[in-house]
Amino acid sequence: MVDRQGSMVQSYGYPTLSPSNSQVVSRAVAAAAANNHHSGKGKGGRNSMRYSVSAFYSMAAEQDNEVEDELAQAQRRLREIKSKISAQSKKNFVLERDVRYLDSRIALLIQNRIALAEQNEMAAHFEEHGVSGDDVYPDDRKLQQYGNLFFILQSEPRHIATLCRLVSLAEIDTLLQTVMFTLYGNQYESREEHLLLTMFQNVLAAQFETSTEFGSLLRANTPVSRMMTTYTRRGPGQAYLKSVLAEKIKNLVEHKDLNLEINPLKVYEQMVQQIETDNGGVLPDNIPKSVTADVAANHPDVQAIIQPRLKMLVEIAESFLTTILASVDRVPYGIRWICKQIRSLTKRKNPQASEFSVCSMIGGFFFLRFINPAVVTPRAYMLLDNVPSQHPRRTLTLIAKMLQNLANRPSYSKEAYMLPTNPFVENNKQRINKFLNELCEVSDFYESLEMDQYMALSKKDLVINISLNEIGSTLSLLQKHLDVIAPKEKDRLRVLMTEAGAAPAQVARKDNKTIELALFSRWEIPIQDLTTALMSENNITQNDILYMETKAIYVQLIRSLPHLGTGTSLDLDYIAETAATTKDPQLVRKGIKVKDMLRELEDMGIIDHRDRYKLLVEEITQELTHLGNLKEIVLTELGSLESVYETILAHNTYLRQQLENYKLYLQNVRLQSSGADKSGKKSVGIGVQLEGQKHPSAPGHAGQPNGKKSGVQGPFKFTHGQLEKDGVICQSNVPESRQPNIYFAFTSPLPGTFIIAMHFKGREKAILEMDLKLDDLLEKQQDNVELLDLEYVGLNVTKVIQLLNKTFLTRNKGGLFS
């Protein structure tokens, strides 16, 4: 039988089973088990295990290394793109964490509300810090200890679940990076995904059990809620948001001037501003400059403005809602399973809970943590290339409020102006309840997870990619809370932590290498021959193996020679003979082999040539039909994930640019704080000097001998055409005939201060000059002001910052924080 199993595996293009390569079989069997976990067939333990072994042959045929048809190529590309998405998601998470940290701090810096010590702390966030040297890399003994420790953490999610509840909000991002993108970082691998969901179940169960504030259980900003939000940002969640919401949001934001504000106070203020503009700054006596919210709400002109806006707003919200409700089958399994746990735990916590209360809890996760953040900030969720302008941004916020009110029907006391949208809530509450309950209708994965865990014992390539600082920070958190996580002396985790010793110190960024850490368990006996083990436990006979192997080889032959699969019925003898007489040695070998296998099966009475092997032909035909359907599914998923991957890459570029902008600003404030800016002047904003006027800080001005000043950088010259091509100039009133004679000179007389001078070739004086302060540019970017008006040309704010960054920062040989 062992020989038969060896030839079986070889026939799929895999090497013979051995301790070093049995993981090939493991992967296929585990995939077969996982592939069936949504079917809801409810197979019992041993039957399900037997089914998984049988399904292995189909899975092996699907992923055959020797077949190069369109399906095999597409599956290979799909595996590659899933791996890339998982890796890139981790990189983006780290960048987003850095940007989020600086975002709030930069805002305070701009407003001069932050101390010098805090400025230095922010700068240190990106400086080399920590220990350094060749001895920071763990030796083989340490790597084995860490491999055993992280296997326990990965395969027994209760430890991580406890830790997630114990850490502070300040510590959670560091832990989330390791949990979401390293420990369970393979976002499309069934075992890791199911273990992660098990961890969520443990966290939620404990949260429900200990919570006294039932209503705000999933709405408060806690480490657990941050963890759930981060989970929705992984590849499958991002793919769903892009496919369902991106087009709706894009269509809305194209209408930049569509103002659907319904807050009476804001409407009144906008109305007053318009009247002032139309009347040269003068208001009629009967229109006061400011009024209370009640007065604004009762003003007839305000009501007349709001009514048509309200109607249109409800129509748009209905459109968004209909699109979301129709997408239930596209919602990622993991998100639906979490919804199922929330429903179950809510009913367990409060058996008398009404359907309204239960659905409100589900909506608190699905809408508040998943859908609405993407609606409100589509740029951050990679659904748009740019931040929406003011009016569409406000409309998206109002739509999100309406969806959230529909999901949980809160009190309207805090936002009375939303009361007119109440009919939208009342008219759709049955639809939303039905949708939220349908989300929960997914089967559990415990049976296939048991199989996956069993398979893990035979894997020799069970690895994670983890950085040295991730190892150190995880061990540090575990040590801090070890008495709660593993209180008993003989707890395996405590034993491993004791052996591992003190958490390694954080290393300098340049030394923070990522290592491939092999995971294993020293308490479990590795399975050397997986197929034999599964057969012995599940009553799989040698005849079963022979039959399944024969079917799989025929499928392989037809995939390699597609013309053999045409016609109304398959001629198995002809297919085997044709393969055996080709010029391909592998096909010849398989053709000869499968002829012998046909005769052997007939001798056993399993098939009969007199009915043209009817049973075997039917199953082969079914398998080929399945593979044909599978090809379409794989190609569709491949197209979707390739789009998601491109979006994630673009978001990575955006985050890096944002980070560089912040670093440039930090360089400026540090130089000024250390005395580089001797004038001690605050930012004076942006001013334009027309032809004939000399700016006081421009090169060549009185007080700057020989037109130079110490520390002045530039001028650096760019043509009109060059800046237009790079997107820096987004509007131009310069006649095309004169554009070739126009150039721009960029100079930095002081750190963080820049002068853009527009010149006409052959003329000594600039046509105009603009004085820019970096903090003003960043503030404009934060306020979504996209245009800098230079009278003759309009400049894109973000592109200007990038150009200044590239032109001046990269020329500073001292580095970023010298």
TrEMBL record:
The cellular component terms of Gene Ontology attached to this UniProt record, alphabetical and capped at eight, are:
cell cortex
Does Zinc-finger appear among the keywords? no
Question: Which PROSITE patterns does its entry note?
Answer: RAS_GTPASE_ACTIV_1, RAS_GTPASE_ACTIV_2
Region span, Disordered:
691-716
Where in this chain does the record put each Ras-GAP domain?
A: 191-408
- As recorded in UniProt, coiled-coil segments are 57-91
Q: Does the keyword Plastid apply?
A: no
The organism's superkingdom is given as Eukaryota
GO molecular-function annotation terms? GTPase activator activity
Q: Which Pfam families match?
A: RasGAP (PF00616), RasGAP_C (PF03836)
One of the GO BP terms on file? negative regulation of Ras protein signal transduction
**Sorted UniProt keywords:** Coiled coil
Q: What is this protein called?
A: Rho GTPase activation protein
Native species of this protein?
A: Hesseltinella vesiculosa
Organism classification? Eukaryota, Fungi, Fungi incertae sedis, Mucoromycota, Mucoromycotina
